[in-house]
Amino acid sequence: MKPPLAHLRFLLCAIGLGASVATHASADGLDLGLGNLYRLSNAKSRSISPENFTGEKGKGGMATEGTGKHAAAELGQGWKVSPSVVIKARTTFTLGEIQGPGCIQQIWMTPTGNWRRSIIRFYWDDEPEPSVEVPVGDFFACGWGQYCQINSLAVCVNPGSAFNCYWPMPFRKKARITMENLDDRDMVLYYQINYQLAPVARDAAYFHAQFRRESPLKQKGLYTILDGVKGRGHYVGTYMAWEVHSPGWWGEGEIKFYLDGDREFPTICGTGTEDYFCGSYNFDTKGPDGKNRYTIFSTPYSGLPQVIPPDKIYEPGQRFGLYRWHIMDPIRFQKDLRVTIQALGWKKTEAGSRYLQLEDDIASVAYWYQTEPHAKFPPLPNREQLSFDKPKL
Fold this sequence. Notes:
Helices cover 9% and strands 41% of the residues. The protein has 393 residues and is mostly beta strands.
């Protein structure tokens, strides 16, 4: 009995599609994990660093000038002549330009100077406006200018002050990365950008990250993490540097995702700040003395890696660093996206405890993928407004 013609056509299409997918997956080498790490690929591995600014094949370690020239004076070329760069005060340095198609897979750097006044930017495919514009410390989930260890899938910060990110960043024509030093002092930067040159899938979106800060909040009790996003994409992460200006617990607020035309009410609404960051009950655990304390933690998808100062729970002026990566649960949108979080604490009244709208100092980084072109970002705060202390308004 011969199979129906339509059935035969379906089988042929399925076989062809499977072969196409398998061939494509083995050829591009961009969708990586332990489950497929053994597969061969036609991708070309490249790396940009001060020892090879262009990432060209066979061009690494050729420098005869650089920050290590004196140390290498007796050894010469090929012996760590150019391990870092000096970015002069109030200037912008191009860390790398890559001709695509390809994908940035890992970035390592260890910047000196003021991390809030060092601005990293990414531009895709010759776009005039950056798709990433964030102070370097906040981009790597260290928003308070102090080292804190972070053990997550997307970002790792290791001793001492070693910033690593593993967000995959595909591009089709070109990638350009810059660092602006807004400070009055020069900064030294060691860095390496690891990438592969390979075809990029048609459904691959572009990586974006945007910084915001309000001190005090423009609207009492409410902070906007992201707004004005137009296009199709998915939200993949939040980092927050949060300074509390009132005594008592501060994290009752709900995070809200307004998707595809939502106005007054969101499609996705959380139940509390510590809940969104995958903690519970004020991030408290009891110490040996029986007293509750904030508990620092860092996991693959979420963390409270930083509490400043430590062990002074519920005191005004506490500073917190929190991250939440939506790697396994991205928030998908088709047309537009807005993200807010409430700054909500407690107050005691004769009728019992009530919610209290707060006026805290909050900075954030929103991470997402989307189609291009993207809407222009709001202006980055100026030098004074970026600083860790209360900005001049």
